[in-house]
Amino acid sequence: MARTLFFFFVALAVATHLPSAFSLTTRQTETDSLDASVSSSYGVTAAATTDSLRGGSPSATYAQVCAQIKASMSSASAVYYPGDPVFKWLSSHWAATSTQMSACVVEPRSAVDVGKILQLVGRYRTPFAVEGGGHATNPGFSSTPGVHISLNSFKSITYNAASQTVEFGAGLSWNEVYMALEPHGVSVVGGRALGPGVAGFTLGGGYSFKTNQYGLTVDSVVGFELVKPNGQVVGVTQSSDSGLFFALKGAGNNFGIVTKFTLKTVPQGPIWGGIVTYMDPTSLAAINLATSKFSTQSTDPKAAMLSTTAYYQGMPLTSVQLFYDGPNPPAGIFDDFLSTPSVQSDIGTRSYLSFYKQSPSNDTYGMRNYFHTVPIAKYTPKIMDLISNLTVAYGNQLASKSLVFMTLVAEPFLPTILTHSTSPSAYPFTRAKAYTPFQIFLSWSDPSQDAVFESALKRISDAMYAGLVAEGQADSLLAPMYGNYAWGGTSVARIYGTNLVPLKVVKLRVDPTNVMGLAGGFKV
């Protein structure tokens, strides 16, 4: 039982989806002030960045737009309606919180057909959603009452040994990419759990077990195939359009629909790692100290880990996922974890794909789930103790409110992770200092308790910030927040910061009528 639970918990910990102490009112105020910054800095009016982007009201029913889309696309593409099992399959999400009933699901099978869809939803101001892997948890981020666009058919994978790159479609999961690359002895800087799609993960930034060696996923991107809001299909690289290339590296779905990614590949041989589970209170305290030590003292870029503190049926539980990008780690790196009494361990040398398959995060399909994040530079012993205390306190408080699972996840990385690329990216908005994306995850079953769990999410976040301030890490209050974990009410200024103004300028150029504003997500 413990083995199954902890595979499950670590899967939750690393699923990359889309959860601050900042209110929606603050979010709008900050956006308005940045509109003024655009006006003064770039010679355009605030009206050009807000009012002119709103567009007109819908001039056709959703059903009529669905019918026009069907008529405009090639015969290879398809439209599905409620009642069709394919409709249910293509519109489903891992989290019930992010699922909506749309008027139709459109499955384009070419970038050209994606362009036709964007032209029509833009013309009629029809709300739409774009779904890749379906692991968003925020309501409306990849779902809609209007037109649901599924990228399921974009599944191509082409490895180029000469250029040491791989081009792959936006409808793939990381599992599929790793499987295709394994026979070639290479891999990519990609996701850490089964299930999440490549699209949202990459467009949000992307943290990997290889990030200590190579940086974020966006740091290894060399090209995008983008369908612009006007329907034009273009290749975007640093040389072809540096501004748009910068914007696509971390600013989500604000500039069109990406249908293909091209990433650098990296050599991949056997790795060492696995999951270790702890339940004894003495062991839990020892693992907190070991995690803090790893966070502050580890210098080997091939070593990585996750430390998950979970609440399940009244009990605090801890697991660590250890990783070394080689057949065996040097002595000393993980000794504290391995010498602490555990209830389960499957540590060993294996293929990277085998290691990755440990965490089947789709096991949580259908629950009501929220993520949130707090940027942390160092996991001190007091911060680790705070994580344990918050897990128990809020687990006990929420148990009677239909709590299913709760996990708080320390994700330590080296302070050098942002030095692997000199090319600017939308996320993070500063590379002067690296912050790790500490993750808060809550899962529950009763829809009537949504507000309770949303409140708990923010209170846990506030408690973490208070603890960080007490530990001399007050800079976390203004540090970049990882959009793939951030709760939907998070201020866009906390995610994009000083990059928000140049992102707005790119937005005005690429999407002057704000077609992409008809879809959910963190909007610039």
Strand content: 15-25%
Largest sheet: 8 strands, antiparallel
Radius of gyration, in angstroms, nearest whole number: 22 Å
> Which outline best applies?
globular
Instruction: Tell me the span between the first and last alpha carbons.
Output: 45 Å
For this structure, the quaternary state is: single chain
* Tally of strands: 19
Q: Helix- and strand-based class?
A: alpha+beta
Helix content: 25-40%
Q: Report low-confidence residues grouped into runs of 5 or more.
A: 1-56
- Number of helical regions: 17
Determine the mean pLDDT.
89
Family: Belongs to the oxygen-dependent FAD-linked oxidoreductase family.
Organism: Ephemerocybe angulata
Keywords: FAD, Flavoprotein, Oxidoreductase, Signal
Protein name: FAD-binding domain-containing protein
